[in-house]
Write a structure and sequence with these properties.
608 residues; alpha+beta; Rossmann fold; Jelly Rolls; 2 domains; 12 helices; 27 strands
Length: 608
C-alpha cells in the first residue's frame, strides 16, 4: 500500500488536495548572492531567490540554514545538473508560490568564512539573529520569516526561533532532534560508532573540497559539482578559496562527540559547554510562545528523531504546534513499510509545510486550524490517523516473559530465568534505521530480519485472536542480571506472520550503567521513561544480582494482524552499529520471569 494521505480519512483537506489547489504562480528567479557580515566580522555567504526575480515586491521569506553547501559551481559546459542538491526542493516548492527563499552557508562551511567550533555551535545560533536582521532590512522582505529543513537544518530552525527575533513567525523542523545526545549520537547511552566517522568524512568532503570523498555520498556525488559557488562580487573565486582555507581548522566529529560520554559531560576547556549547548531543548525558554511550530519525522527516522519530534511537541507551550509521523526513514527518502506499494513516498511532505507557512507566515486561509494537531501513519493497517493528544491510546496491554520462552498475557507465579551470552560478532545488518542518518543508502529496511531475529533470545505470544493496534512507545521492564558490571541491552519487537515471516517493528537500547530513572525536566517533556544519563547517576551492575531496567522502545504505530504472533527479542550487542560493552568481556545476561521479578512488555493500545 502507498503512504497517500487519502488513506484513512485523517484530514478534512488532505495535504495533496491542498497542494493541488496551490499551483505555481511565479517562476523561480535567478539566485543573487552576497556576503553578510556578522558582529565579529565573520562573513557568511547568502543566496536570495525571489518569485519572478522581482525585488520590487515584498515577499514572506523562508530561510534555510545549512552546513552542506548552499550552491555548487558546475563544471564548464554543464547546465543539466542541479547545483543546490541540499536545498532545491525548498526552492521549487516555495518560490513559485510567492515566497522569497534565503539559503545561508553556515559559519565555517561552503563559501562562508570562519570555523566550526562544534556541532550546531552556539556561535551559529547568534549568527542567525544577524541573518534575520539582514532579511527584514531588504526591500523585498515583507518582515515575516519562516524556516524549515531536514536534520541539521531542522534543528537550526529551533535555534533561529530561540534568538527571539520578532520577525520569525513559523518554523518547521523536519526529521530533527530535540536532544542531540540521545536522539542522535548516544541512544540509550550508547555511541553509534560509525555515525561520527561517516559524518566526519562527509564534512571533510564538503569543507575541504575533497571530491574523492564526496563521491561516496549519493547526494553530492555528481562529478559536475565543483566547489562552493562564490558570491556574485567574488568574480575570480578568491574569497571563496580564502574562506575554505579557514575550514581546515573545523572541529572533527569523532574527536568532538566522544568528549560527551555522559550527557552532562563538559568540554575540559569550557566547563559550561555540554551536549545541551548544541541541543534545541536547552533554549526552550527563549523560543517565543507565538511562534508556530510543525515537527515532522518518521517511524524509521534514525536512532531517535521521532522522539525529538514528540518531545518538541510535548514540551513547547506554544499555542500553534503540530506533529506529523509517517512510515519514513530520515528525510522521507524511503517509505519503510514492508507493505509499501513502492519505495518512494507519495505523501507531499513539503506540500504540508507549504500549507503551514501559508497559514502562519503568509496569512492565507488554509483551514489548517480545523485539522487535528497530530497525524500519524499506522503501519500494516496502512492508513493515516489523526489525534488531538499524544499518545493517542485507549489503554495499555501487558505481556510477561514466561517459561518456555513464551510472552504471556498472564503473569506467571513461578520464578524462572533465561540466559543469553552477548555475541560481539552479531549485528542488525546494513539496511537499518541507522544507515540513512550517516548519509548511507538504505532502501529495504530489515528485509533479512527473518534470518537474524531467530538467533536472539526471544519470547513469543500465541497467535492473536483479533488485530491489535498500537501507537506510541512500547515500554519494557526487564529484570536482568549480568556477569559483568556493564552491558548493552538491545530489545526488539517483531510481528511473526502466520507463514513464519518475521517483521521488524521497533527497538530500544539501554546501557545498563544508565538504568536509573528520573522525572523528566520542564524543558524536556516525555510520556515515556526518562533518565538523566548523567555521570553522577551512572552505576555499575552488581554481578549476578537482578536489576530492573525499564526503558522505552522507539515509538511506532503498528497494527498486528489476526493470527500473527508478537515476539520480544533480547541481545547484548549490535556489532554493525555500536561498540562492545564492556570491551572484550561479553556478558552473560539473565532475564528473570515470574513473581516479584516479572519482566514485562507494555504496549500502548490504540483504537483504529
Amino acid at each position: 500500500m502507498p503512504d497517500r494521505d487519502d488513506l484513512g480519512g485523517a484530514w478534512r483537506v488532505p495535504p495533496s488536495r491542498y497542494l493541488a489547489g496551490r499551483p505555481a504562480e511565479f517562476v523561480v528567479g535567478a539566485p543573487t548572492s552576497s556576503y553578510v557580515a556578522m558582529p565579529d566580522g565573520c562573513r557568511l555567504a547568502v543566496d536570495v531567490i525571489l518569485p519572478n526575480g522581482d525585488a520590487g515586491k515584498r515577499w514572506p521569506t523562508v530561510l534555510i540554514l545549512t552546513p552542506y553547501i548552499r550552491r555548487f559551481q558546475l563544471a564548464p559546459g554543464v547546465n543539466d545538473v542541479e547545483p543546490s542538491p541540499n536545498s532545491y526542493r525548498y526552492r521549487d516548492m516555495f518560490v513559485p508560490r510567492g515566497y522569497a527563499l534565503v539559503v545561508v552557508d553556515a559559519r565555517g562551511t561552503g563559501a562562508s568564512f570562519g570555523t566550526r567550533d562544534s556541532f550546531r555551535s552556539p556561535r551559529e545560533r547568534e549568527d542567525y539573529r544577524t541573518i534575520a536582521d539582514w532579511i527584514v532590512a531588504q526591500p523585498w522582505s515583507d518582515g515575516a520569516i519562516g524556516a524549515t529543513g531536514i536534520s541539521y537544518l531542522g534543528a537550526a530552525c529551533d535555534f533561529l526561533a530561540s534568538t527571539g527575533h520578532k520577525a520569525v513567525k513559523a518554523i518547521a523542523p523536519l526529521f530533527a532532534v530535540w536532544d542531540t545526545w540521545t536522539d542522535n549520537y548516544y541512544p540509550g547511552g550508547m555511541l553509534i560508532k560509525r555515525l561520527a566517522l561517516v559524518y566526519d568524512e562527509l564534512m571533510l568532503a564538503l569543507d575541504h573540497d575533497r571530491r574523492d570523498l564526496r563521491s561516496k555520498f549519493s547526494y553530492f556525488a555528481n562529478p559536475a559539482l565543483l566547489g562552493p559557488m562564490p558570491v556574485d562580487a567574488d568574480r575570480d573565486g578568491s574569497l571563496a578559496r580564502e574562506a575554505m582555507k579557514g575550514h581546515l581548522a573545523n572541529f572533527r566529529m569523532p574527536d568532538f562527540i566522544t568528549e560527551f560520554k555522559c550527557r552532562d559531560d563538559a568540554l575540559p576547556y569550557d566547563p559550561g559547554f555540554t551536549s545541551a549547548s548544541f541541543s534545541p531543548y536547552n533554549y526552550l525558554d527563549e523560543i517565543p510562545k507565538d511562534v508556530a511550530v510543525y515537527a515532522i519525522s518518521g517511524w524509521m527516522d534514525g536512532a531517535g528523531y521521532a522522539n525529538g519530534a514528540l518531545s518538541r511537541f510535548l514540551t513547547l507551550p506554544n499555542k500553534h504546534k503540530r506533529v506529523l509521523l509517517g512510515p519514513w526513514d530520515h528525510g522521507a527518502r524511503v517509505n519503510a513499510s514492508p507493505w509499501r506499494a513502492r519505495q518512494e513516498p507519495e505523501f507531499p511532505v513539503l506540500g504540508e509545510v507549504l500549507r503551514f507557512f501559508d497559514q502562519h507566515l503568509a496569512g492565507r486561509p488554509t483551514g489548517l486550524d480545523q485539522e487535528d494537531p497530530i497525524h500519524y501513519f499506522a503501519v500494516h493497517a496502512e492508513e493515516w490517523r489523526g489525534a488531538k493528544s499524544w499518545p493517542p491510546v485507549t489503554g495499555s496491554q501487558r505481556f510477561y516473559t514466561a517459561p518456555g520462552r513464551q510472552l504471556a498475557a498472564a503473569q506467571p507465579n513461578d520464578d524462572t530465568s533465561d540466559n543469553t551470552r552477548a555475541d560481539f560478532t552479531a549485528g542488525s545488518g546494513t539496511q537499518t534505521r541507522y544507515e540513512r542518518i550517516a548519509g548511507i543508502e538504505a532502501t529495504s529496511y530489515y528485509a533479512d530480519w527473518s534470518e537474524r531475529e531467530p538467533k536472539l533470545l526471544g519470547f513469543t505470544t500465541p497467535p492473536l485472536e483479533s488485530p491489535l493496534e498500537i501507537a506510541g512507545h512500547p515500554v519494557v521492564s526487564l529484570w536482568l542480571s549480568a556477569s559483568e558490571p556493564d552491558a548493552a541491552v538491545f530489545v526488539y519487537l517483531s510481528e511473526i506472520e502466520p507463514d513464519g515471516v518475521s517483521r521488524y517493528v521497533t527497538e530500544g537500547v539501554l546501557r545498563a550503567i544508565h538504568r536509573a530513572e528520573a522525572p523528566c525536566p520542564r524543558n524536556y517533556r516525555t510520556t515515556w521513561p526518562w533518565r538523566s544519563f548523567a555521570r553522577k547517576d551512572a552505576r555499575p551492575m552488581p554481578i549476578g544480582e537482578p536489576q530492573l531496567l525499564r526503558f522505552a522502545l522507539l515509538p511506532t504505530a503498528w497494527r498486528f494482524a489476526k493470527g500473527s504472533r508478537l515476539k520480544l527479542s533480547i541481545a547484548g550487542a549490535d556489532s554493525d552499529h555500536f561498540a562492545q560493552t564492556p570491551h572484550g568481556r561479553p556478558p552473560l545476561l539473565t532475564v528473570h520471569s515470574g513473581g516479584d521479578k516479572s519482566s514485562i512488555l507494555e504496549l500502548p493500545i490504540a483504537e483504529a
